[in-house]
Amino acid sequence: MAGFKTLDDLAEVRGKRVLARVDLNVPMADGKVTDATRIERVSPTILELSRRGAKVILLAHFGRPKEGPETKYSLEPIAAATAGVLGKPVAFAGDCIGDKATAAVAAMQDGDILLLENTRFHKGEEKNDPEFTRALAANGDIFVNDAFSAAHRAHASTEGLAHLLPAFAGRTMQAELEALERGLGNPARPVVAIVGGAKVSSKIDLLMNLVKKVDALVIGGGMANTFLAARGTDVGKSLCEHDLAQTARQIMIEAAQAGCAIILPSDAVVAREFKADAANEVVGVDAVPADAMILDVGPRTVETVNQWIDRAATLVWNGPLGAFEISPFDRATVAAARHAAARSKDGKLVSVAGGGDTVAALNHAGVADDFTYVSTAGGAFLEWMEGKALPGVEVLKK
Ligand code: ADP
Ligand code: MG
Predict the structure, then answer these.
(1) What topology does CATH give the domain 187-385?
(2) pLDDT-derived band of residue 78, with 50, 70 and 90 as boundaries?
(3) Pocket test for ligand 1, best of 199, 357, 383 (most atoms within 8 A of CB)
(4) In this structure, are residues 295 and 280 in contact, taking their beta carbons and an 8 Å threshold?
(5) CATH architecture of the region 7-171
(6) Which of 103, 187, 199, 353 is the most exposed place for a label (fewest CB within 10 A)?
């Protein structure tokens, strides 16, 4: 990708010690990996480096250890899981610096893969401490960062190493950066954003950034209630941050100034209880009963959203349109997701989505694979949508 060094810029790696920062922060239960998606995502980079004869030394964090090493945060069980996914042996060293690491690296043959213990077992990792960073760098000739999901943190293994060793983006990092570039960096226009989810308060920066970059912003989910209330609509017992009315108005003003259309729901699915299969009805947003809450946008709104998707060349999506975890309030999210997926599959739309619940909602709708790109990076993806520079990405720039 323009502006970043990738594995294509890495001329000769045979025999070189490559420190590869990967995301192995996988969900575990009873000492077993319950979802290997993250391991699968970093496999191409590991296998390519190994195939090209590098000594591949994996650096990763796991969980949030507070006071040094803790057995429950050891990466050792994940070495075996990674070997299973790669179909190749993965050795393990009980420390990421010092004698244990040095000895394990010295024993490597070209093409071997070694996982070093949790980088966060050392305080210097999160402090980006120069001495710790030098100790990590002592075991490598080249640094490859394939952990976009950790790129919003300036840690030793995500940022510091790039100052000490020649640094390159791994294949997953590269794919993520290329997708994000197509989403907001240099997108085909018009660009439409869909933002939903529970609260405005968690997404103020994101909304402020988007109105300056996109041509239309569809607001759904609980946060739409705050916008509706801010323009004088009574949203009954709906989730609503009344104290953010001024912020919502400010976002609408900024949008108007930037020429970004704001699309709020025109109808809603309301219920009296927040639970699956609660009795519900569709009402216009100006007719929400005082004792009811909005749990989804209505069918008329879905039609409008789909029309905006039809007009869009690029779609950026974060946040479900309704309380998608409880049926039938997943309907709007599923319908819009399927529509966007179909347009993408037809080659008419570049669709980029991300966010923990958003990924879950797209999986629930069965369309995650049909979107152009679905980011599983969580916090890093949101910071990117907020327009922030990510330290782990900045250091990879040419
Ligand atoms: P993401 O994790 O993708 O960034 P959020 O965490 O911002 O998304 O939002 C997801 C949450 O928003 C879901 O738990 C969903 O139930 C909730 N939500 C969406 N619409 C509503 C609504 N109308 N009322 C209450 N909660 C809602
Ligand atoms: Mg969430």
Answers:
(1) Rossmann fold (3.40.50)
(2) very high
(3) 357
(4) yes
(5) 3-Layer(aba) Sandwich (3.40)
(6) 103
